Amino acid sequence: MKSKNLIVFLIAAVALLALPLLLQTQGNAWVRIVDIALLYVLLALGLNIVVGYAGLLDLGYVAFFAIGAYLYALLGSPHLTETFPAIKAMFPGGLHAPLLIVIPLALVLAGVFGVMLGAPTLRLRGDYLAIVTLGFGEIIRVFLNTLDHPVNITNGPKGLDAIDPVHFWGLNLGRPLKLGDYTISSVSLYYYLFLALVIVTVIISHRLQLSRIGRAWMAIREDEIAAKAMGINTRNMKLLAFGMGASFGGVSGAMFASFQSFVSPESFSLMESVMIVAMVVLGGIGHLPGVILGAVLLAALPEVLRYVAGPLQSMTDGRLDASILRQLFIALAMIVIMLVRPRGLWPSPEHGKSLRRKGDATPMTPIEASGVDSPADEVPGSPSRPMSINP
């Protein structure tokens, strides 16, 4: 089994490394679609910590995406030096912050905002938590849209442009890389950077899931009162979940700003938050492969549906808008999938199976199953349960 898993891993690694090189032969548009899908995978993995592990419904997750994007845009565009003479005097050549500084800053800043969001919502659950987080996301978007006066910080609805591409160790991802007679396009270079970040995020998420912190999050998700009775500090665990999930969103936002070279408040609407939540739910809440699958499908589906909505629009002489048709088809596909697979396309293993130790092939009897009364519950002082206090 180990050798078979190793072969599958090597084949998948070679396929992922060769994918952009094959797609760029058909045009850079397909590589850009894959790049955007990887950014959504980063977002979905971050939200999975909050929603999938801790069971906290967050509808304002796009706010952390916006925070990371605007942080990179302010540090990598001429806006601050053109607006504030003091900053221009300190940095005559512009800020041009390198990648190794921007990523930790985006991670920390988004994490701090995540804790700030989690602190006042510790006593909220379900619909109330969803409404508060939704309001937080809208507040951030409104602030970005209006912070152009009296002091112009975000440039308001006009957004920030001329953002520097990612550059590190003398490599500029905004320019094609020539290796002899072969040229690797800029979008393909971004693909490898995004893929590396996704792999790191998957490893961190997997280790968190298996750690004591991940077990505490899952206990809170299943029954918060029982988790608190078992000695878990639910307050700290919830704040940690909000902070960890937000940090991944901040990193993804910074990469989005460098990739697009332009950011505006319109890119961080409520619809984006809904789509990210849909990716987690559609793929399989709490299951990393399912979350990745849901993010890739929902990120690529709108682009694929262009080839369906376009002909339908031409058949109706333009009476039907192609963008509206695409949204309609996406909604129908999600409804069908959730009816057929209510737990997601790739759900997590059953709770009892996931907690059993490897190598323990002893099947659980109905008496040992959770939630089933056993004879020991009925007969006080039986040898199987001598400490039973049931009458």
Topology:
Elements: H1 2-23, H2 28-53, H3 62-76, H4 79-83, H5 85-90, H6 99-118, H7 126-146, E1 160-161, E2 167-168, E3 171-172, E4 177-179, E5 182-184, H8 186-210, H9 212-222, H10 224-229, H11 234-260, E6 262-263, H12 270-283, H13 288-304, H14 306-315, H15 322-340, H16 351-355, H17 375-378
Antiparallel strand pairs: 1-6, 2-3, 4-5
Helix pairs in contact: 1-8, 2-8, 2-11, 2-12, 2-13, 3-6, 3-7, 3-11, 6-11, 8-9, 9-11, 12-13, 14-15
Q: Please, could you describe this protein's structure?
A:
By secondary structure, the chain is mainly α. Helices cover 65% and strands 4% of the residues. The protein has helices spanning 2-23, 28-53, 62-76, 79-83, 85-90, 99-118, 126-146, 186-210, 212-222, 224-229, 234-260, 270-283, 288-304, 306-315, 322-340, 351-355, 375-378; strands spanning 160-161, 167-168, 171-172, 177-179, 182-184, 262-263. Strands 1-6 form a two-stranded antiparallel sheet. A two-stranded antiparallel sheet has the order 2-3. Strands 4-5 form a two-stranded antiparallel ribbon. A hairpin with a 2-residue loop joins β2 (167-168) and β3. α1 (2-23) packs antiparallel against α8 and α6 packs across α11 (234-260). The model is unreliable at 351-359 and 361-391 (pLDDT under 50).
